[in-house]
Amino acid sequence: MSSTDFTSELRSRPESAFVAAAGLIVDEATGTRVTGHIELSADHFTPWGVVHGGVYTTAVESAASIGASAAVADRGQFAVGVHNGTDFLRSSTGGDRALVVAEPLQQGRVQQLWLVTITSEQTGKTLARGQVRLQNVPLPA
Amino acid sequence: MSSTDFTSELRSRPESAFVAAAGLIVDEATGTRVTGHIELSADHFTPWGVVHGGVYTTAVESAASIGASAAVADRGQFAVGVHNGTDFLRSSTGGDRALVVAEPLQQGRVQQLWLVTITSEQTGKTLARGQVRLQNVPLPA
Amino acid sequence: MSSTDFTSELRSRPESAFVAAAGLIVDEATGTRVTGHIELSADHFTPWGVVHGGVYTTAVESAASIGASAAVADRGQFAVGVHNGTDFLRSSTGGDRALVVAEPLQQGRVQQLWLVTITSEQTGKTLARGQVRLQNVPLPA
Amino acid sequence: MSSTDFTSELRSRPESAFVAAAGLIVDEATGTRVTGHIELSADHFTPWGVVHGGVYTTAVESAASIGASAAVADRGQFAVGVHNGTDFLRSSTGGDRALVVAEPLQQGRVQQLWLVTITSEQTGKTLARGQVRLQNVPLPA
């Protein structure tokens, strides 16, 4: 499946309420690179008025899963996360666009490891970065 | 602040769209234990039709942050996550209640480490488990 | 292979200099539990005079690998670590015995996840705890 | 303290048996970069005849601790690891030099986060990579 096909197919599927609220817009999705962005706002806040860490962990999980699944789509597989480790480097109070870039650190027959960095467009500084380990599994029939 | 006070205050704050969509209902919140639940459904799905890993990482982050913040509220502090490491043990296709339990592994002057387990009410099996490392910081004035 | 056989076979293999210096003495090794101990001393120190974190990460790695390998030995497999995540909870200046206990959190066909806790015998407090994710692979012919 | 001073002082301290067996030779140590190497050999093996994962986690821990401690030495502090998360990407059967490079991802007042990559000199491929989170603490008087 070409990267254009994969991105298109992904976009054609309805988003769940959770995925919509998490707010990641995928700009490009291939088996070796996924980029996207999030418009950070009060919609993403914790009760303490900063962007919830789960917004970042979820973007990390989504971006890595999309890329890793794109990488094995031709084999009739997709990739499921088994571990997500995300570090929070700076907090955000919204009004900023977060840029998300995912790239593989390792792509094996059975497993993949992806690194995802999330950067403030405004400041150029890293907000969060995470690694996801994924297992390649058969697509549901 | 008593645990009842803390839970009440938490409930009195408006939930952001992201926190609402993530679906964690906090049942009890003290500085040494937080419990809650999520009604897993299609609202939480990835494009591949299973519960998104971000639902679990977000519940892990929320539960640990609430507990760790409760623990230091009396000192005029709250706790912000610096690392969230979550393992996904079993996938779910919804129609199940996930039980969330958070407990501290370490509570220091500067840092805390919490363990959060997420279990299927139906099967009793662990769906995910995560650790969050948090830093104690002054409450905004 | 019975647990006694596995422990015996393990003990019959020569230890490398690194494994010997790391100092983990395995007391019991089965596919669902590994226990051991380390006599912490100046032999394990960093240049700053405390036990090196690598002594704990190495014990975590060893104990998990031994248990996970025992679990799949009957299938002609052993288990290799793919991720080791260890938290250091208290520092030690030696003169203490560290008790090591490893137990599985998940044992799948392809992967295993083990939790290892390291406790001071003297104080009963946790010094470190780590999780190792392992992949089951065929034994070398 | 200048970087030359720090490296010199480090070298002047006696190495413990564990640190010696782990085999990391530090080539350069500053508060923003640490490099070193390990001559991988049978001295580093597990009972299964490959380099022990603990050799990598220990190098990750050492390199990050040395760099992070160099970074705060002027403040009368050093840095102690609180979490070490290391991924093992390729196994080694020795006869190779492993190149170790550590660089900070974040350097705060209270905490630091360092990334350490370990590469085979022979193949240029990554053997392992790890992140260490450290806390800045006062030097012992």
Structure report:
Four copies of one chain form a homotetramer. With 141 residues, the first copy, chain A, is an alpha+beta fold. Chain A has a single domain (3-138), classed as Hotdog Thioesterase (Thiol Ester Dehydrase, Chain A, Roll), CATH 3.10.129.10. Chain A contains three helices and six strands. A six-stranded antiparallel beta sheet of chain A has the order 1-2-4-5-6-3. The longest helix of chain A is centred in the middle third of the chain and has 20 residues, at 53-72. The first copy, chain A, is globular and about 45 Å long. The two termini of chain A are 17 Å apart. Chains in contact: A-B, A-C, A-D, B-C, B-D, C-D. The A-B interface holds A 10, 13, 15-23, 42-50, 52-55, 57-59, 61-62, 65, 69, 78, 80-88, 91, 140 and B 10, 13, 15-23, 42-50, 52-55, 57-59, 61-62, 65, 69, 78, 80-88, 91, 140. Strand 3 (77-88) of chain A pairs antiparallel with strand 3 of chain B.
Summarize the structure.
By secondary structure, chain A is α+β, with helices and mostly antiparallel strands. Chain A is built from 3 helices and 6 strands.
If you average the pLDDT of chain A, what whole number results? 94
| Assembly of the depicted chains | homotetramer
- H/E series of chain A: HHEEHEEEE
How many domains of chain A? The number is 1
- The CATH topology of chain A is what? Thiol Ester Dehydrase, Chain A
> Reading side by side through the largest sheet of chain A, how are the strands ordered?
1-2-4-5-6-3
Q: What general outline of chain A do the C-alpha atoms trace?
A: globular
**What fraction of the residues of chain A are assigned to beta strands by DSSP?**
35-45%
Q: What would CATH call the architecture of chain A?
A: Roll
CATH superfamily of chain A: Hotdog Thioesterase
Biggest protein-protein interface?
A-B, 43 and 43 residues
Helix content of chain A: 25-40%
